[in-house]
Amino acid sequence: MDLQNIKGIGDKTIKSLNKLNIYNIDDLVNYYPFRYQTYNIKKLSSVSNNENCTIIATVESNPQVFYFKKNFNRLSFKALSDNLLINVTIFNRAFLKNNIKIGEEITLIGKFEKLKNNFVASDIKLDKIDNNTIEPIYHVNKDIKNKTLIKLIDNTLAINKEYDDYIPSEINDKYGFVSKYEALQEIHNPSNIKELKQSKLRLIYEELFIFMFKIMIIKKRNDSISLGIRRNVSQTQVNEYIKSLPFSLTDDQLNAVNDCLNDLNSDKRMNRLILGDVGSGKTIVAIIAMVINYYSNYQSAMLAPTEILAKQHYKNILNLTKNLNISCELIVGSMSVREKNNIKKRLENGEIDIIVGTHALLTDDVIFKDLGLVVTDEQHRFGVNQRTSLQNKGKLPDIIYLSATPIPRTYALTIYGDMDTSMIKQKPNGRKDIITKIKKNSELKDVLYHMLEEIKNNHQIYVVSSLITNEDDNSDLKDVMLLKEKMDIAFNNKVNIGILHGKLKNNEKEAIMNDFKNGIIKILICTTIVEVGVDVKNATMMVIFDADRFGLATLHQLRGRVGRNDLQSYCYLICDKEKERLNVMCESNDGFYISQKDFEIRGEGDLFGTKQSGDMSFKIADIKRDYKILLQAKEDVIKFIDSNEFRYNNLYRRIVNNIDFLN
Ligand code: ADP
Ligand code: MG
Question: Of 130, 203, 231, 536, whose CA is between 20 and 30 Å from 28?
């Protein structure tokens, strides 16, 4: 059944739903409330003057509407509540006029002006609700109202009762879970807290079970392929290359390189995760592994989540391998078909040793002559399925993932259960902690003054504005322009300021990024685009506006853009509200510590980043909060896979096929 078949859904609604990433009825019923509203109904006689409350009332007169302006009106009527006759007013609800009928019981939410006998409602519900009502609240946008979404989901659940149930029947029996349909009913239309909790638990378990199934099936596959490529590269050869680098490696980096070398020189297929905080220098480890792979005459591929990052890696590799005879190329979506075809041909012929690219690398027509190693940078940005699809391009290529997600080792072992891990904890020598300060908007002058100092010292600055995150809203762009204007005035138009925002075309973004890298642009106003990977050593200051809008993990990633050489770097968090959690940023530069504190303060971290992250974007589960359930699901998944039961289950066969098995 399609969305079109649901009562109340037309073309326009479909467009609005699409904006919420809802494309079919499964997406719709799996769009869960992020919280619930409960009510405390009061007797009017017990309400004091100007108190906010919810009351039940009977309509006593037909509503009158007064229009002040086109979009500004007042609706008023008389109502009886708790034996008191009151005037009710509400603004901008003229459309309710014909729905409010004399004699009907309704619910009023708002402020009671007792002395004037007036009830100023902020919301009116056209039926009588009670203290047991639990109202689901969804993330909505301006095109679609919470109420509409409730209705559409109700309509869907009313006509379609069949939904894929991923919990195998034995497991369902073991835990006595409610059925999938009941759970969906309850999560969208709770009857009471107890049943809501049970349903939530069931949906969380199911989501984590599927997640662990994917992980464990990949692990099983990797384990079964014992014969990887065996190389024969000596430690001396590697050391010689390391000596040629412009800096000496930290002990952690050397250990990670050794882990890679051992894996590459063994029959075992390498499947290694290199975990290290931002700025710890993971890239060079991967580059050395690619050089080892090159010494053995195999091709390497490096996958990056954004074009900016792919280009940066590409240039970095060119630079660090210029004394070797390596042919390295770049492939990204914005290149012309002809350019891409040319590169694909050369890849297939074996003329290219290292290819760096974005998702463009993942298409079926990218064929390698002899792919021996695949590196995926910022691994958490890719989904489980994506992370396997490139591996299948070679015979049995070795695999390295780079990830900056600061997760404690126990979590890593579960979530990355299919991989070996190397940790890079130290920062390169000479790195200073980034001095971080919280400033109010009223103290902006101090910040601007400090910015000017840095620029006079020929350093560069990132300014992050959360305003540009909403890509299709022009009003945001206006605000950013205003920010630029302010700075232009403050700096007397003498400083070159660039803006990187979502509305720009790829080549425009690239030009701006290049100018920043080359020091032509001194201040880069940007979005969280810079959050991943971007490396401009000369940038020594970051100013983050509305810092309280970001999670600590995001702030830490953002801040990691500065402090990339031995200069003292600074970070200003601009925020008017008093936020305890921001203090954590001033206390520490350690991603692990910060994520731990985030957890203590908020009860849950944004440990796994924001929505963009591939694997970790759960609809209802939260790995940290639900860690015990995750462990249980893992145990159950292992039994489920061992029993081979999944081969007779269509849903799991589909997952397995999607993971794109080696034939
Ligand atoms: P991340 O781990 O965040 O991906 P990068 O690999 O981008 O970090 O490295 C950060 C910066 O530090 C880069 O400019 C890199 O060239 C540099 N770097 C890496 N290792 C060292 C080292 N041992 N000594 C000095 N600089 C290093
Ligand atoms: Mg990186």
Answer: 130
- The three-class DSSP label of residue 654 is helix
Say how many domains are in the chain: 3
Q: Would you state the pLDDT for residue 572?
A: 97
- Residue among 243, 245, 247 to mutate when testing ligand 1 (max atoms within 8 A of CB): 247
> Which ligand 1 atom minimizes the distance to the CA of 280?
2
Min mean pLDDT across 56-60, 203-207, 305-309, 500-504 is at 500-504
Q: Which domain holds residue 364?
A: 235-424
Q: Residue 612: which pLDDT band, with cuts at 50, 70 and 90?
A: very low
Q: Is residue 143 part of a domain?
A: no
Residues 418 and 472 placed together within one structural domain of the fold = no
User: In terms of domains, do 398 and 451 share one?
Assistant: no
Residues with CB under 6 A from ligand 1: 247, 249-250, 253, 276, 278-284, 404, 428, 533, 535, 537, 564
Please indicate, yes or no, if residue 274 is contained in any of the structural domains.
yes
Residues 441 and 380 in one domain: no
Residue 72 burial class via C-beta count within 10 angstroms: exposed 0-12, middle 13-18, buried 19 and up: exposed
The percent of residues in the chain predicted with pLDDT above 90, rounded, is 57
The residues near 586 (Cβ < 8 Å, ≥ 6 apart) are 436, 437, 438
Task: Indicate whether 274 and 255 sit together in one domain.
Answer: yes
Distance 60 CA to ligand 2 centre (A): 67
Ligand nearest, relative to CA of residue 274: 1
Q: Is the pTM of this model over 0.85?
A: no
Mark 521-534 as b/e (b = at least 16 C-beta within 10 Å). bbbbbbbbbbbbbb
Does 259 share its domain with 114? no
Q: pLDDT for 136-163, tens place per residue?
A: 999 887 788 898 999 999 999 999 999 9
- Beta-bridge partner residues of 461: 523, 541
The CATH number that applies at residue 285 is: 3.40.50.300
Ligand 1 site-directed mutation target among 251, 252, 283, most atoms within 8 Å of CB? 283
What is the average pLDDT across 493-512? Answer: 85
- C-alpha 101/C-alpha 62 separation (Å) is 7
- Per DSSP (E only), the strands in 565-604 are 570-574
536 and 413, same domain (yes or no): no
State in Å: Cα 381 to ligand 2 middle: 12
Pocket test for ligand 1, best of 253, 380, 381, 535 (most atoms within 8 A of CB): 535
User: Which residue, among 458, 463, 428, has the nearest Cα to 538 in the 3D structure?
Assistant: 458
Which residue's alpha carbon is at the smallest distance from atom 12 of ligand 1? 281
Residue nearest to atom 9 of ligand 1 (CA): 281
Mean pLDDT of the chain: 87
Q: Higher confidence at residue 358 or residue 389?
A: 358
